[in-house]
Design goal:
The protein is an alpha/beta fold. It has three domains: 14-125 and 336-406, no CATH class; 144-319, no CATH class; 410-546, no CATH class. The strands form five sheets. Strands 9-10-11-16-15-14-12-13 form an eight-stranded antiparallel β-sheet. A four-stranded mixed β-sheet has the order 2-1-5-4. Strands 3-6-7-8 form a four-stranded parallel β-sheet, with no helix packed on it. The radius of gyration is 25 Å and the shape is globular.
């Protein structure tokens, strides 16, 4: 947490002072909100409830007369995406006043929990709250890194518009939407034309992004996951010869770009420049890199020690905040500390404790962990976000928190959020092509510079390569983020490990002997911890010895 309670003091470098003056009204609103988060949150909820009165969702759930959080909790239980999906489909078909009175201007596509992608509605009021939080983050970044104003800012995003709903509402990634929504003084520092991010092939897309970044003095790299930074470092080495040829020729026609169609290459040509190729292709050596901005909580922390060797020098890593497609929960006020201060002016937040009790933002205990539930101007009310946070301090009267993990049976290394439901559906589809019915299996995530999933299974005699390819394809069909990460190289191909017949039977016997009720034991379809996987491997080894 910032030691100085005046997180946005007026003194600082010239660029910060200029921006600080422009955004003084926002800073005043934020400081009032963190000084009295209960009042700020109750006012926000009143505005959210007012924005949904008379909508189909409000009528269906008897919410038109609700005025307070206590009344809302009494009328509407916590729910997930399934509750809202039928209403979102109605919006997609063109119906108005379904979740909010404000029109939906965009859908954010993200992973679903039961197979199809989720579409998160965006309204102007909701987008404004996210934009304000992002502005505070940028202010803190500029305050701590004055030299950023003289260089370029490399951001890694996906296209904001991937397609359109039946009624014409665009849908796409949240990173792309936020990229385009940044204020002009941020956008002018982007070295990569937006058209490069829209190239359909992920190899061509990343190559083009690197080609443009190499002709600029990049001072910062911003992306959600540190694995993307590692991917950049690997691809710079892999494509060094091709990139050197394109830099010296002022072109975009080598390496993966060689197969670019003329129509895709043409919009990119006007901004290409001839640039000498670097001698050292490590990011911190070829650029004047000052900071890397990415997630630092949860599994992301495992990758952070790998950044310095990949970058070629120690570069400060700054948290980008606790956020999801559905919400911006908390913003870091300092690059020194990893904790993020709750953003009280975005969503109304509720926190579910281990005992099931529900608390407001102003009622949280130091050191405790909570599952986050949000209500927002996008019309998602009492929406179970599934993120677990730990309270680690306070700024004024607002809690500071860190992201801990996703709630429930779920694996994720690069933001793919692969659920047990998706895995079971993918395995069922794979079984239609292979004789896998009834074969016990367990999926494990392995963390490396390029993470991968491994399936352990009792199904000897089948071709492991074919199983790996088919299951990898099915996982991508059931989880759009998994497919995206695989295409971009942020996830390595899935692997298969055969286990001796009887391994799971031995694992079961050992679990029952250790006290697990026989009627409650289930073979683990996901190994959510290293010890769980090690117990399975030990049973497989011992079974193999006795077979």
């Amino acid at each position: 947490m910032p030691r100085d309670p005046r997180a946005f003091e007026r003194h600082g470098n010239p660029a910060y002072r200029l921006l600080r003056g422009v955004h003084d009204p926002l800073i005043r609103r934020f400081e009032r909100a963190v000084a009295d988060p209960e009042q700020a949150q109750r006012r926000l909820l009143a505005s959210i409830l007012n924005g949904l009165r008379g909508t189909a969702f409000s009528r269906d759930h008897g919410l038109d007369g609700v005025r307070s959080v206590e009344e809302l909790r009494a009328r509407l239980p916590v729910g997930g995406y399934d509750r809202f999906e039928p209403y979102i489909q109605r919006i997609a078909r063109g119906e108005r006043r379904v979740l909010t009175r404000q029109p939906v201007i965009h859908f954010l596509e993200t992973s679903g929990t039961t197979g199809p992608a989720k579409w998160i509605p965006v309204t102007r009021a909701w987008a404004s709250g996210v934009s304000d939080a992002q502005t505070l983050w940028v202010l803190g970044l500029v305050r701590e890194h004055a030299s950023l104003a003289q260089g370029a800012a490399l951001t890694l995003v996906s296209p904001a518009v991937k397609g359109r709903s039946p009624s014409g509402i665009p849908y796409g990634s949240n990173t792309g939407r936020m990229h385009l929504a940044q204020p002009w003084w941020v956008r002018r520092r982007y070295p990569v034309p937006y058209e490069a991010y829209c190239l359909p092939d992920p190899e061509q897309r990343l190559y083009a992004v690197l080609r443009f970044a190499l002709q600029a003095d990049v001072r910062s790299i911003t992306t959600a996951n540190p694995t993307t930074v590692l991917l950049i470092a690997r691809k710079l080495q892999e494509h060094a010869a091709a990139l050197a040829a394109d830099l010296e020729g002022g072109s975009l026609e080598h390496g993966p770009a060689a197969s670019l169609s003329p129509s895709l290459r043409a919009p990119l040509l006007p901004t290409l420049r001839r640039t000498p190729a670097p001698m050292d292709w490590r990011p911190a050596q070829l650029w004047g890199l000052r900071v890397v901005n990415c997630w630092k909580g949860g599994l992301a922390s495992w990758f952070l020690p790998r950044l310095a060797p990949a970058l070629g020098a120690h570069v400060p890593v700054r948290e980008v905040g606790i956020s999801a497609s559905e919400s911006f929960l908390a913003v870091p006020l300092s690059g020194v500390e990893d904790a993020c201060v709750a953003w009280p002016l975005g969503e109304f937040m509720e926190f579910v404790a281990d005992d099931g009790s529900v608390r407001g933002l102003w009622q949280l205990d130091q050191g405790a962990e909570y599952r986050v539930v949000i209500s927002g101007h996008h019309g998602l009310l009492r929406y179970d976000l599934g993120d677990v946070v730990r309270i680690v301090g306070r700024y004024r009267d607002a809690p500071a928190m860190v992201f801990v993990r996703r709630h429930g049976n779920q694996l994720s290394a690069t933001g793919e959020k692969l659920t047990e439901t998706q895995l079971l559906a993918a395995m069922a589809a794979t079984a239609s092509s292979l004789a896998l019915d009834g074969a016990p299996f367990t999926l494990r995530l392995f963390l490396d510079d390029c993470p991968w999933y491994e399936l352990a299974i009792e199904a000897p005699g089948l071709d492991p390569t074919r199983l790996a390819v088919l299951l990898d394809e099915q996982l991508g069909l059931h989880n759009v983020e998994y497919a995206s990460k695989r295409r971009s190289g942020r996830l390595a191909p899935l692997r298969v490990r055969w286990l001796p017949v009887g391994s799971y039977a031995l694992l079961r016997r050992r679990a029952v002997a250790a006290g697990t009720p026989e009627g409650q034991y289930k073979h683990p379809s996901m190994a959510l911890s290293a010890p769980a996987w090690e117990r399975l491997m030990l049973a497989a080894r011992d079974q193999g010895v006795t077979s």
